Amino acid sequence: MKMLTIENKSGKLRLNEVVSKPAIERMIDEIGKLFGATAAAEGADFGIIMNSAENAVDTLEIEINSPGGSVFDGYTIFQEIKSLRERGVEVTATITGMAASMASVIAMACNTIRMVPHARMMIHDASNVVGGNAEQLRKAADLLDSISADIAAIYADRTGKDIEDIRAMMKKETWMGAKDAVAAGFADEIFDIRATTPISIDMSLLTKLFPGKNESEIEALIADTDSLRNDLTNAQAAIESLQADVSAKDQTIAENIAKIAELTESHEAVAGQLATAQTALETAAAELAAKDEEIAAAKESASKEATQILAAIGQPEPLPESETSGPVDHLAVLGKLQGAERTAYYNENKAEIRKALTKP
Predict the structure, then answer these.
(1) What is the CATH number of the domain that holds 73?
(2) Which listed residue (104, 124, 148, 330) is catalytic?
(3) Does residue 342 contact residue 334 with C-beta atoms inside 8 Å?
(4) How far apart are CA 39 and CA 49, in angstroms?
(5) Active-site hit among 101, 104, 148, 330
(6) Is 330 annotated in the active site?
(7) Half-sphere exposure (CA, 13 Å, Cβ side) for 96?
(8) Cα dihedral 12, 16, 19, 23 sign
(9) What pLDDT, in 10s, does the model give residues 328-360?
């Protein structure tokens, strides 16, 4: 943005970059120069201030070729333009390339909006790249809805359209050429710069720069140049959009890396817990094995003591567990018994004992 001329109490500014705080501050500073406010702020003497006031512009043209940007910084210049209009200044917005997003809202503040034939205007819902928990994301979504509703009201006031119709256009991101914008009420007229500045004025110079070409050929070159400028403007907008996408994706990647690091840390903690549990299980197994050995030794000792006690009271020795688990050798058992016990055992197992005696 740069002040180009101050002629016949008219001034011209340019907004040819992203809407941001530095850009808007420079623009407001240029407006201050046009109206003498800067002279007063810098402590100029009365004569300089009066001269600035006498030469203050009563018409202001703002050339716009911007992809948009910060909503709140854009509101600042929007209100500044409204204030100029209240002081009687006629403000005209001339869209020379693109007035997208917040740049289109800024244009709505002007008395007259005109677009060159190849210019484009774009309106859409407010957007932002945010992160945080669910509650923070809900707050961000509510804020964006509120901002979009405010912007829709500005468009509706300018065009006379219903706010719901405007919201529908914003939600689907609507691009309009000069004719469509004028038809929809977003612009007032199509402005052909070449028609207001006849080519014949500079034709003598142009014929020297392009020897051998007639006026028609030179006009064709100028038209090609305008077309190329428009292509470059659109390419710049596409590059800026891609840069925004890259920034958003970079943030997403950073968030994913942080989540991976968090999951890795959690996995390592779980792995450590599992290793501790495994060690505890191995220790418990070893303790159980030792207990089993103690129990086995105690059982063996108890068995020996029981055998000794039975022998002391004249009872037969208990049969080994290995013997009770298979066929009983009744003859061997009889050999160990005496008296009434032997007779009783024989009577209980008479059939098996006879079979054993008849075997070869």
Answers:
(1) 3.90.226.10
(2) 124
(3) yes
(4) 6
(5) 101
(6) no
(7) 16
(8) negative
(9) 787 788 778 888 888 888 888 888 877 777 766
Residue 265, in any domain of the structure: no
SS3 state of residue 269 = helix
Average pLDDT over residues 38-44: 42
Q: Tell me which of 197, 231, 255 is where a domain ends.
A: 197
Q: Tell me the pLDDT band of 36, cut-offs 50, 70 and 90.
A: low
Residue 201 is classified by DSSP as G
* DSSP class of 337: -
Domain count, the chain: 2
pLDDT exceeds cutoff 70 at 319: no
Please count the other Cβ atoms lying within 10 Å of the Cβ belonging to residue 191. Answer: 20
Answer yes or no: 124 catalytic.
Answer: yes
Q: What phi and psi, each to the nearest 5 degrees, are found at residue 154?
A: -65, -45
Residue 284 covered by a domain:
no
The pTM (predicted TM-score) of the whole model is 0.50
Residue type at position 21: K
Instruction: Indicate the residue type of 149.
Output: A
Residue 14's DSSP bridge partners are: 63
> Going by C-beta distance under 8 Å and a sequence separation of 6 or more, which residues neighbour residue 210?
217, 218, 221
**What single string gives the DSSP state of each residue in 227-248?**
HHHHHHHHHHHHHHHHHHHHHH
- Each residue of 195-234: b (16+ CB within 10 Å) or e? eeeeeeeeeeebeeeeeeeeeeebeeeeeeebeeebeebe
The residues, ordered by sequence, that sit 6+ positions from 280 with a Cβ below 8 Å of its Cβ are none
The C-alpha atoms of residue 103 and residue 133 are separated, in whole angstroms, by: 32
In a domain, 76, yes or no: yes
d(CA 40, CA 49): 6
Task: Show the domain range for 43.
Answer: 6-124+173-197
Cα 149 from Cα 137, distance rounded (Å): 18
**What tokens appear for 136 in the block?**
């923070």
Q: Is residue 356 part of a domain?
A: yes
> Span 123-137, mean pLDDT?
87
168-213 per-position pLDDT tens digit: 999 999 999 999 999 999 999 998 865 554 433 445 556 656 677 7
